[in-house]
Amino acid sequence: MLESRDYMRDRYQGYNGNVNASKKMLRGIIILTVTLFVLQQIFPKDFEWVLSLKNQATFDYQNNYFSTPYPSWLVYLGIPGHLLVHADVFHILFNMLSLFWLGQFVIEKLDAKQFLTLYIFSGIFAGLIWFLSVNGQGIIARSVGASTAVSGVFVAAVMIYPNLPFFLGLKLRQLFWVFLALDIAYILTDSRTNGYGHILGMIGGGIYMLIFQRAYIAWTPWGALPRKSKEYKPKFTIHNFETGKQKVADLDAIEISSEVDKILDKISAEGYRSLTKKEKEILEQAGKKLKR
After folding, report:
1. Is residue 179 part of a domain?
2. Does any domain span residue 226?
């Protein structure tokens, strides 16, 4: 029924009430990353401290320090800093285009702060685990690029809109398994592509969604859906833009047709943009009836 759908809920459990702010945040991340990359190309010496994050540093266990031609604090800065460093134009182009396309869907649910937290948390989680794991081998080979954070955004989009057709007719949840298989292949073949970092970013994004955004999750890789809060009592707020008044109705008393129900199911699975013109008209007519 209608009350079970997260997109009909209040500000916390419904659509993002300030999508414009989230769009600005998404664009801001992309602009900052691209700007820093361009400056690195124009002034390579001045930005050597950033470029140095791509170099390896060996760990001296006897003296307990990192052997590197750069200040030791740069080694630790690489954990969050790798999000701002890219190998070449194609590397940053792929990451930023992916972030832009996937972010469009995620910001329908998450506000600006939530989206930024998802992005940074996924990147730092992957960078930290990567740092600790290779440190155990005696060499720090940091991950380069924002793909760890983008992988977290990708998983968030998959968990929110699993059945959304995205690329070559494949749904997001199908693409999840494709990219997971590719990353595993990268690891097994010792490819220069950091499949390990991508998978860690996916895990980080999944952890963030499960802990902080459970109400938005429609699908998980392991199949089981998270339980919704028992304290939540669904209400439907009707706004009258002419009078400026609003009223709250109990959704248990609202009956909807099977046709409208199917349209709402489609929104939940594929987003509002997937609706046809006719479906939007049907939904609009149903909304007018509810306001009477």
Report:
1. yes
2. no
Fill in the amino acid letter for 244.
G
Q: Is 22 exposed, middle or buried (0-12, 13-18, 19+ CB in 10 A)?
A: buried
Give the number of C-alpha atoms closer than 13 A to the C-alpha of residue 172, restricted to the C-beta side: 25
Q: Which own/partner pairs from 193-196 qualify as long-range (CB within 8 Å, at least 24 positions apart)?
A: 194/130, 194/143, 194/144, 194/145, 194/147, 194/148, 196/130, 196/133
Q: How many CA atoms lie within 13 A of 38 on its CB side?
A: 7
What is the C-alpha separation between 8 and 255, in angstroms, rounded? 14
DSSP annotation string for 250-283: EGGG----HHHHHHHHHHHHH-GGG--HHHHHHH
Task: Give the global pTM.
Answer: 0.70
* pLDDT value for 128: 86
Domain range enclosing 285: 235-291
Provide Rg for the chain, Cα atoms: 22
Band of pLDDT at residue 172, cut at 50, 70 and 90:
very high
Residue 83 maps to which CATH number?
1.20.1540.10
Query: Domain boundary at 157, 182, 216, which?
Result: 216
154/150 Cα distance (integer angstroms): 6
- Check whether residue 158 and residue 261 sit in a common domain: no
Report residue 5 as tokens.
């759908």
Q: Say which residues have a Cβ less than 8 Å from residue 186's Cβ, sequence separation at least 6.
A: 193, 194, 195, 196, 198
Which tokens belong to 172?
Answer: 């997001």
The structural domain count of the chain equals 2
Q: How confident is the model at residue 12 (pLDDT cuts 50, 70, 90)?
A: very low
Whether residue 224 has pLDDT greater than 80: no
Residue type for 63, please? N
Same domain for 239 and 192: no
What residues are paired with 140 via a beta bridge?
57
